[in-house]
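I have been asked to look over a protein record a colleague put together. Thanks in advance; the entry in question is below.
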Amino acid sequence: MNDATLIPARTAGPRPGGRSARVQAAVHQAVRELLAEGPRDALTVPAVAARAGVTPSTIYRRWGDLSQLMADVAVAVLHPEGAPPDTGSYRGDLTLWLEQYLDEMSSGPGRTMLRDILGASTEQNTGRCLFYCTQQIDAIGERALARGETPLPTDAVIEGVVSKLMYGILFAPSTPTNDDIGRWLDALLGV
């Protein structure tokens, strides 16, 4: 599966690379800096624009509003920095990745990122989130195949574990635990 099949095409938007990439990087950096310096509710498009060295109209033209910008920054933070750790087994790799995912998403900053993404939910943002998860689970599965193991279909992991984690983080009275992850994986693996 490639990025283009999971991320709907924009009807209008920036061109990749060049000035557009520099503007995006500057604006994202400005948001992160301003959030680190002061209260979230004090963040405004003019303040971000001034910090990034662009005009507010650049931000409005590219992102539409502050909520869309915050969602874009949150999704960018979710982009994996590399391949999932290799523990030597499919079950170990998947368990470790899921536990790290739970820790990240259930943390205060993780919950804030999720609220930003859902608050400005667009197919672009949710498609990228799904793509990043799928990419990591696919990598774990490909590594398992290379070791002679039989991995679960990625969709089964998304539906059987990741979706339960996300629902629990967002809506359940208590956050899922690593024990829940183990139980859900056991059910999928038929253990």
Observations:
- The chain has two domains: 12-64, 78-189.
- The two ends are 29 Å apart (CA to CA).
